[in-house]
Each structure stands twice: as C-alpha cells, then as structure tokens.
Sequence to fold (385 residues):
Amino acid sequence: MTSQTARPTSLTAPGSLGRPADAPALLTFLTDLEAWLRERRAELDQLDPDSLDPEPWTPAELALRDDLVLAMGLWQAARARADELHQVWDSGRVLEVERERMTSLIWGRLDTGTGAGTLSLLEAARLCDTLTASISSRLNHDPDATELRRRRQALGAALVRCEDLAGTPEEQTRVADLVRRLGLVASQADRGADVAGRLGELETDVARAERDLIVAVAARQQLDRDRDRAQRLRTALANSAPAVHTLAERARAEIADPPRRAVPDVGRLGDPPTDRGGLEDCLSRLGRVEQALAQAREAFSAPLRQRAGLRYTLRTAHERAQGNGRAETATARAALDEATAAVEASPCDLALAAALVEQYEVVTRTLPRSAPAPTTRSAPPGAAS
Fold:
C-alpha cells in the first residue's frame, strides 16, 4: 500500500476571544477550513489498518488503530464545528453579534469526545495532522533509504514541535530522551543498519508524546484562563464590597430593625491557586461570595428604599391635601406631624411610619361632593286641586 504524509495545517484563526473578526477574514477561514477537511478526510480514508496481520495484534498495531480512531474523532469534531460556523455564517448575512459568535466558535473549546480533552479548533486540526502523518509513516514499510530519510526528517520536525510544547521539567526530559533515541537511530542507519523497526517504534512514541504535549498545553492554557477569571472576579468583588459595607452601616443606623445579615470579607480569600483542584475550589468560593454580596446588598437596601418610598408618599399626600383644602384642619396637621416625625426618626420604625403615613392619607382624602336637592315641579294653572 502506498501512503501519503499529511501536510501540517496552514489554518490561521481570525480575531480573538472578545474581539470579533471581520466578515472577509471569516470567509477566508471558512474556505481554508473546508479545504483542510476535504484533504484530511481523503488521507484518512486511504489509511487502511486492516492490512495488518489478523488478531492477535501486537501492541504497536493496537496503538496504530487507537491513533486512527483518535484522528477520525478529531476530524469529526472539526467537521461538526465547521457546520456550526456555516450555520451562523448564513451565506454571509452576519452582523457584529454573529461575527462575535463565529469568533467564539473558532477560538473556544470543543469536546472531541476522544479522551484528548477539550481543544480549540486549530489545536484539534494540528493534532489530527500529527496523528495522520504518524499513521501514514507506520503503515509504509518501504525499506528504501530515501523513504527512511524522509521519515527521519519528519521525526526531527515533530521533535522540534515537541520541544516548543514542553513546558515542565518532566516533559522536557521526555522529549530529550526521544531526541537521544532519534540520534541513535540515525547513527545506526548511517552505518548501514536496518532501523525500520526501531524507527517505527520511535514514530509511535513521538506521535504519542506530541499528542500528550498538545493536550497538556491546552490544559495549562485553560488553567491560566480560569486563574485570570478568578483574579478578575476577586478584584471585582473586592471593589464592590465597601459599598455593601456602607449600605449595611446606613441600614443599621437609620432603621430600627435592620436585617441580621453579615457582609462577607473578600480579603480573606487570598490569591487564586495555581493547581486545578485548588482553583476549582477557589472559583466555587468566589461564586458563593458573589451571591452572598448580592443578597446582602438587596437585604440592606430594601428597608432604605421603603423609607424613601414613605417619604415620597407623605409628600405626595400633603400636596394633594393642600389642593383639596384638607391640609389645614387640626386633624390633618396632627397626622402630618406624627407621620413626619416617624419617617424622619433615626432609627426609623418602618411599621409605625407606614401606619402613620397611611393614616395621613386617610384624613386628607378628598371628600365626595354633596348631590344637589331635587326640584319640585309646580302644578299648571287651572289644574284641579
């Protein structure tokens, strides 16, 4: 069987999260994405693991089948995301909201359903390219020296990408060991040894290492984004907490029976941790603090709003009483004095103030007008008595 080497993807994502791309850039990306999907599907269809020996399969053959399933899963995830993009694109009828949605779909995470975790569209495409190239190389058993050199060059390029991805000492040690093994295989090949078997094993290990590194980088990037989100939320809560404390102090000073609710101390949360478990716990606590602050703000502002409403109601009732002539009666003046004293008292008894304001509204309400007395018609002249 003749195999082809998958070419690395040349997809370039337009825009960024929070900054929608313009329509021409989105159209170019959709065109390039469809071309990549067609080309990669054609290459995957040509890879035929059934040409291996019948069961039982060797570990290398099992790994090859697993990688082919993973590559197809990544392609399917990219195909599904492309369909979503076309649906939002709607033949180019896109405004800013649709462009922002498309940019989020391009840069956002997609669940590949393959065990590789959540990757962006471009990360899934690159991982699919890497696996396709690896599978193609492992299925090609041509012992020709030119083909072996090509495979060694492809391995060298893959190891360079792995070096760029390795971010922890353990990952760097793993990549350095693969580089050492490639140097040993190259040295043996230059001396005329048959290195096809060792080269195939190394291709499997390099492909697996690059896959693991891509997933690890995606996980670290997601961790950094979540930590930035936690830091922004903590800063926002710290900025809003003083206003809630001030509101609570006002309610306790101005209301006779203020709410018995504590205002959480945001400063006790500390900086967001760097590990995934600690960060998830931190985000959960921040969410609870955000909810508690919102509840405290509503609880302490409600009685203050009620007092302000009573003041407005009393003022409106007094203006109405002045208009209907009821404001100057002794009862009205006494009711106004009582209601005003209750509303303006500190602390204010809201129940008493509400009752006195309602009493003032009652004593100053407009009285109904009396109906005119009916007139008696006189009998016509000459009528019989």
The radius of gyration is 39 Å. The chain is about 70% helix and 0% strand. The chain has a mean pLDDT of 83. Strands lie at 109-111, 118-120.
